[in-house]
């Protein structure tokens, strides 16, 4: 082969390699987009279900917050319990959203849809990312709806850091979706899934500082390791223009932890989807 032929051959090889990379990337983006659109269609078709995810925590906030207002106090800080409890209720909305949305993984497996996704050219990384993207978008829509109630909790709309609120919601929802996805991937029944969620995730919300301060004792040590703690603190910072005396961690620490949790949970869900065959 002459030098020119060799050069031409290398050029063709590079074009073929670039074409394969482009095709693979297009396939991955296509799968992510399809799963994201599926969650958006579910949101439109099941509006009463998703509204209930918002209405139930808001009702809890109103009833419990009103009842506790006369007895709640923080040392050195004058704050009404409705104000203190509101960011924690927003974290509950995100939690409920991820629980209900990832339960669809079990339903999709029983209906055969998941098997079709697994046999598609797209990778399982793309499958997990598409699910995280869809659920995070749903959670964001619901948190923006909750934000309309914020003035009643003592958070004027003009004081809300909207960019931070969006970032905290997307990061927190992505991390919780990855965690919930791992449980949904290995559990066969929705009843078993609900039991695990009630035993694990709801207690995590309770000891996150959502309902009461966790600043001493063994609960404080658990709160440091609790991913829900940083979601609650993120909302406290967001509703107070990025600076809140009610948060237990500084803003930079909160954001770094949310980013780390999101990456870690996505990696764990992707690894489990590759190594554990129950999803097939």
Features:
280 residues, mainly alpha, 10 helices
Q: How would you portray this structure in words?
A:
- With 280 residues, the protein is mainly α.
- The protein has one domain (3-279).
- The protein contains ten helices and no strands.
- The longest helix has 43 residues, at 3-45.
- The N and C termini lie far apart (49 Å).
Summarize the structure.
By secondary structure, the chain is an all-alpha fold.
| Rounded average pLDDT | 83
Element pattern in H and E: HHHHHHHHHH
- Please mark out the parts with pLDDT under 50 across 5 or more consecutive residues, or reply none: none
Kindly, what is the distance between the CA atoms of the first and last residues, rounded to a whole number of angstroms?
Answer: 49 Å
Q: Strand share of the residues?
A: under 5%
Helix percent reads over 70%
Count of distinct strands: 0
> Tell me about the biggest sheet?
none
**What is the number of independent domains?**
1
Rg, Cα atoms, Å: 22 Å
Helix-strand makeup class: mainly alpha
- CA-based shape: elongated
Q: Helix count?
A: 10
Question: Any chance you could write out the topology, listing elements then pairs?
Answer:
Layout: H1 3-45, H2 47-68, H3 81-111, H4 113-118, H5 124-147, H6 162-186, H7 190-206, H8 217-225, H9 227-239, H10 251-275
Helix pairs in contact: 1-5, 2-3, 2-5, 3-5, 3-6, 3-7, 3-9, 5-6, 5-10, 6-9, 6-10, 9-10
